[in-house]
UniProtKB/TrEMBL annotation, chain A:
<keyword id="KW-0479">Metal-binding</keyword>
<dbReference type="GO" id="GO:0030313">
    <property type="term" value="C:cell envelope"/>
</dbReference>
<dbReference type="GO" id="GO:0016020">
    <property type="term" value="C:membrane"/>
</dbReference>
<comment type="function">
    <text>Subunits I and II form the functional core of the enzyme complex. Electrons originating in cytochrome c are transferred via heme a and Cu(A) to the binuclear center formed by heme a3 and Cu(B).</text>
</comment>
<keyword id="KW-0812">Transmembrane</keyword>
<keyword id="KW-0472">Membrane</keyword>
<dbReference type="InterPro" id="IPR008972">
    <property type="entry name" value="Cupredoxin"/>
</dbReference>
<dbReference type="Pfam" id="PF00116">
    <property type="entry name" value="COX2"/>
</dbReference>
<keyword id="KW-1133">Transmembrane helix</keyword>
Automatic annotation (TrEMBL), chain B:
<keyword id="KW-0679">Respiratory chain</keyword>
<feature type="transmembrane region" description="Helical">
    <location>
        <begin position="296"/>
        <end position="320"/>
    </location>
</feature>
<dbReference type="InterPro" id="IPR036927">
    <property type="entry name" value="Cyt_c_oxase-like_su1_sf"/>
</dbReference>
<feature type="transmembrane region" description="Helical">
    <location>
        <begin position="146"/>
        <end position="168"/>
    </location>
</feature>
<dbReference type="GO" id="GO:0020037">
    <property type="term" value="F:heme binding"/>
</dbReference>
<keyword id="KW-0812">Transmembrane</keyword>
<dbReference type="GO" id="GO:0016020">
    <property type="term" value="C:membrane"/>
</dbReference>
<feature type="transmembrane region" description="Helical">
    <location>
        <begin position="346"/>
        <end position="365"/>
    </location>
</feature>
<dbReference type="InterPro" id="IPR023616">
    <property type="entry name" value="Cyt_c_oxase-like_su1_dom"/>
</dbReference>
C-alpha cells in the first residue's frame, strides 16, 4: 500500500473512531440516546389499557410533567397542551392504528410511534412560544393535517 | 483444455466482431424499460414538487400519496433495477465473450416477471388501492395484488442473480487458475448482495400477502419494518456498487489512464458485500423496541461501510492525478485541467463522484444516533438521498449510457450528442443542487418528508418552510428537463444515431502491476461472512421483537 494511502486511511478511520466515542459517550454517559422504549401494548385495546385509558397532562414533580398521549389518524389526544416555561416534560406515546411520527419542530423531539409499542421521550422547554407538533410518518390521506401545538408560557 | 481453447477463440472473435447481438438485445430491452420508467417517474417527481409547494393542486382522482408511491417504486425499484441488470449483463457478456444461452434465457424470464410485477403494482397504485408509499409499512394494507406484483419483481431479480452465478461458475471452471475479468467480479458482488438483500423483503412480503387477503388476522409491524430495511438500505448500496464499478474500471480508460491496483479494488467490492446489510438499522434509530446498546452497535456497523468508500475516494483521485500528470499537467493542481471535462462519459460520473463527498458526509450524520434524531423523517433525508442516488448513482448511470448504448446498438456517439450530454449533465447538476440543497435546509428547520402541501393552520414555523418548498419546485422543473433530454439521448442513440463502432472503455492495469490474487474469488466464503455479519446484527433484535411481540395489528386502510 502506498504511504500516502496509509496516512489517508489512518486519519479517516481515526476520525470515524473518535466519532464513535463521542456518540457512545453521549448515548451512555450523558443518557442522550435515541428514544428506544421497550414496553408493548395491545394496539386494539389502547383505550382500555393503562395509562392510555386516561390520556392527558399530569404534574409529577416540581415543574415536571408527564404527557400521556395517543396518536391516531389524524390527530393527537390530548391536543393543544399548555405548560409553563422551563418545564421538563416526559411524553408517553402510543398509536391506536398505523405508524406515526412524533415531532416537535424547533426541538430535538422526534420519535417513531408504532402500534403495539409504547414510546417515551423527554424534553425541557426553556423558551416560551407556541411549538408546532406534527406527525412526520405518512399515515394516510389526511397525514398533512395531523398537527397540534404545545404552548409554553 | 480443448474446450478452453475453443472458448478463447470465441472470445477473440468477439473482440473483432463486437457485441453478441442476442446479448445486446437483452441489455437494450432492460434499458428501454429503465428509461420509460425514468420518464414517468420524473413527471411524477415534478408533480410532487409543484403540489408540495402549493403551486398546483392535484385533481381529486390523483392524490399526492399515489404520486409519491409511484415515483418511489418506478425510480427506486424499477429504473435502478432494470438499468443495473442491463449494464451488469452487458459487462458480463463483454468480459466473458458472450453469455451462455441458458443464462440469457434466465435473464429474459426475469425481464418478463419484472414487467408483469411492475404492471400489477402500478395498476393498484393508479386505482388508489396501494397508497402505502415505497416502504409500505404495515399495518397500512394495500391490495394483495400490489404485494404479489412486488414478489414477481423480486423473483425476476433472482432469475437474473442465478444467471450471473451460473455464468460465473462456468467461466471459472473453464479458466482454472485465472481470476475473472474485473467487471465480471463486480457483477458477482452486485448480484450476491442483491440476492441476500432481497431475502429480507421477500420474507416480509410473503407474510403480508395472507394478511392483506384476510387469511391471517394480524401482523408484527416491527419485524416487517426491520425486514424492509434489511433490503431497503442494502438496495442503496447495490446501486452504489454498480456506480463504483464504472468509477474504478470505466472512467480511467475514458481519461486515458490505467485502473488502480486490482487487489484493492477487489477488497473494496468484498468489504461492500460483507458489511452492507446491517446498515438498514440506521433507518430505525428512533424506533421503539430496539434498545440503545443494540442501536449503538448498529452505528458502528453502518459507519464501517464508510471505510471501503474512503478507500475508493483515495484510489480515484490517485488515478486522476496520475493520468493528468502523464498528460502534461504541471504544478500542484495542473493535472485537473488535463482531464477531459468536455467528454460527457467523464463529466457525468466525475460530478457523481464529487457529489458523494457531501452525500457520504450526510450519510454519516444520518447514521449517528442523536444526529439522526434531529433529521429523521424531515426533508433533510429526502435531500440526502437525492444527492446520493439522484447524483452519485444516477449521473454515473447517465454517463454510462453515452458509450454503452451506442456500443450495443452498433452506432456512434456523435460530437453533437456528446454536447447534448454535457448540457444535460449541467442542467441535472444545477437542478439537484437547488432541490436537494433547499431540502437539506428545510429539513433542519423541521419540514417533514412525505407530506403533501400544508401550512398546519398557518403556523408560523410551517410558513417559514414555504420559500424552500418553492426551491424544491424550481429544482424539480430543471430535473424534469434533464430527464427529457436524457430519455431523448438514450432512444436516439438506440435507434437513430449514425451506424458505426463505439468502444467499450475498460481500463487496463498499470504496466507491471501484480496479478489480482486468486483468493478474492472465494464467493462461498464471502457469502458465509456476509451471513455472519447479518447474524451478528439481526439475531438479537429480531428474536427480541418476536419473543416480546405485542398482539399484532390488523390490516388498516387510511386513504
Amino acid at each position: 500500500m502506498h504511504r500516502l494511502e496509509e496516512i489517508w486511511l489512518t486519519v479517516s478511520c481515526g476520525i470515524l473512531i473518535i466519532f464513535m466515542f463521542i456518540v457512545g459517550y453521549q448515548a451512555f454517559a450523558l443518557e442522550m440516546g435515541p428514544p428506544s422504549h421497550m414496553e408493548t401494548i395491545d394496539p386494539q385495546k389502547v383505550d382500555q389499557t393503562e395509562p392510555f385509558d386516561n390520556p392527558g397532562v399530569f404534574e409529577i414533580g416540581e415543574n415536571e410533567y408527564e404527557v400521556v398521549m395517543t396518536m391516531q389518524t389524524f390527530g393527537f389526544t390530548p391536543n393543544k397542551i399548555e405548560i409553563p416555561v422551563g418545564a421538563e416534560v416526559h411524553f408517553t406515546l402510543t398509536s391506536k392504528d398505523v405508524t406515526h411520527g412524533f415531532q416537535v419542530a424547533g426541538t430535538n423531539i422526534n420519535a417513531m410511534v408504532m402500534p403495539g409499542h409504547i414510546q417515551k421521550i423527554s424534553h425541557t422547554f426553556d423558551e416560551p412560544g407556541e411549538y408546532l407538533v406534527l406527525c412526520n410518518e405518512y399515515c394516510g390521506i389526511g397525514h398533512q393535517v395531523m398537527a397540534t401545538t404545545i404552548t409554553v408560557k | 483444455m480443448e474446450h478452453a481453447k475453443k472458448l478463447n477463440i470465441k472470445e477473440t472473435s468477439k473482440k473483432l466482431l463486437g457485441v453478441n447481438p442476442a446479448d445486446a438485445k437483452l441489455s437494450l430491452s432492460y434499458f428501454t424499460v429503465a428509461f420509460v420508467s425514468l420518464l414517468i417517474g420524473g413527471v411524477l417527481g415534478l408533480l410532487q414538487g409543484l403540489e408540495r409547494s402549493g403551486i398546483i393542486s392535484l385533481p381529486s382522482w390523483l392524490t399526492y400519496y399515489q404520486v409519491l408511491t409511484a415515483h418511489g417504486l418506478l425510480l427506486l425499484v424499477v429504473f435502478s433495477a432494470t438499468f443495473t441488470i442491463g449494464y451488469q449483463y452487458a459487462n458480463l457478456s463483454h468480459s466473458f465473450g458472450g453469455l451462455l444461452p441458458k443464462v440469457r434465457k434466465l435473464a429474459w424470464i426475469g425481464f418478463v416477471l419484472m414487467v408483469i410485477g411492475t404492471a400489477m403494482a402500478a395498476t393498484m397504485i393508479i386505482l388508489n388501492e396501494a397508497s402505502v408509499l415505497y416502504t409500505f409499512y404495515p399495518p397500512l394494507a394495500a391490495h394483495p395484488l400490489f404485494y404479489i406484483g412486488l414478489v414477481l419483481v423480486v423473483v425476476g431479480i433472482w432469475f437474473c442473480c442465478f444467471g450471473v452465478f451460473i455464468n460465473y461458475r462456468h467461466w471459472r471452471k473453464n479458466h482454472p487458475g485465472q481470476t475473472t475479468p474485473i467487471l465480471a467480479f463486480f457483477a458477482m458482488g452486485v448480484f450476491v448482495l442483491w440476492f441476500f438483500a432481497s431475502i429480507g423483503v421477500a420474507t416480509e412480503v410473503l407474510t403480508l400477502i395472507p394478511w392483506a387477503m384476510g387469511l391471517v388476522e394480524t401482523t408484527n409491524v416491527m419485524v416487517a419494518r426491520t425486514l424492509f430495511w434489511w433490503f431497503g438500505h442494502t438496495l442503496v448500496n447495490i446501486w452504489y456498487l454498480v456506480a463504483v464499478s464504472a468509477w474504478y474500471v470505466i472512467v480511467p480508460k475514458i481519461i486515458g489512464g490505467r485502473h488502480f491496483n486490482e487487489k484493492l479494488i477487489r477488497l473494496v467490492v468484498i468489504l461492500l458485500v460483507i458489511l452492507n446489510i446491517p446498515g438498514g438499522f440506521h433507518h430505525q434509530i428512533i424506533d421503539p423496541a430496539i434498545s440503545v446498546p443494540i442501536k449503538f452497535l448498529h452505528v458502528f456497523m453502518s459507519l464501517s461501510i464508510a471505510v471501503p468508500s474512503l478507500m475508493t475516494a483515495f484510489a480515484m483521485f490517485a488515478v486522476f492525478e496520475k493520468t493528468g500528470r502523464k498528460l502534461g499537467g504541471k504544478g500542484l493542481l495542473g493535472w485537473v485541467k488535463k482531464l477531459p471535462w468536455g467528454d460527457v462519459r467523464f463529466l457525468a460520473p466525475m460530478i457523481a463522484m464529487l457529489a458523494f463527498i457531501p452525500g457520504g458526509a450526510g450519510g454519516i450524520v444520518n447514521t449517528s444516533n442523536q444526529l439522526n434524531q434531529v433529521v429523521h423523517n424531515t426533508m433533510w433525508v429526502v435531500g440526502h438521498f437525492h444527492v446520493t442516488v439522484g447524483m452519485s448513482v444516477v449521473m454515473t448511470f447517465f454517463g454510462i449510457c453515452y458509450w454503452l448504448i451506442p456500443h450495443l446498438a452498433k452506432r456512434q456517439l456523435t460530437p453533437k450528442m456528446n454536447k447534448i450530454g454535457v448540457i444535460q449533465t449541467l442542467i441535472w447538476t444545477l437542478g439537484m443542487i437547488i432541490m436537494a440543497g433547499s431540502m437539506h435546509i428545510a429539513g433542519l428547520l423541521g419540514d417533514p418528508r412525505r407530506t403533501s402541501y400544508t401550512t398546519y393552520s398557518d403556523h408560523p414555523t410551517a410558513l417559514s418552510w414555504i420559500p424552500y418548498e418553492y426551491m424544491f419546485a424550481i429544482g424539480a422543473t430543471l430535473l424534469l428537463i434533464g430527464v427529457i433530454i436524457q430519455v431523448y439521448a438514450v432512444f436516439n442513440m438506440m435507434f437513430f444515431a449514425p451506424k458505426g463502432h463505439t468502444e467499450y472503455p475498460v481500463a487496463e492495469p498499470e504496466d507491471g502491476a501484480p496479478a489480482a490474487p486468486l483468493w478474492t474469488e472465494r464467493w462461498g466464503l464471502w457469502s458465509v461472512m456476509l451471513l455472519l455479519v447479518v447474524a451478528m446484527a439481526y439475531v438479537i433484535p429480531i428474536v427480541d421483537m418476536i419473543m416480546h411481540a405485542p398482539p399484532g395489528s390488523p390490516p388498516i386502510r387510511t386513504w
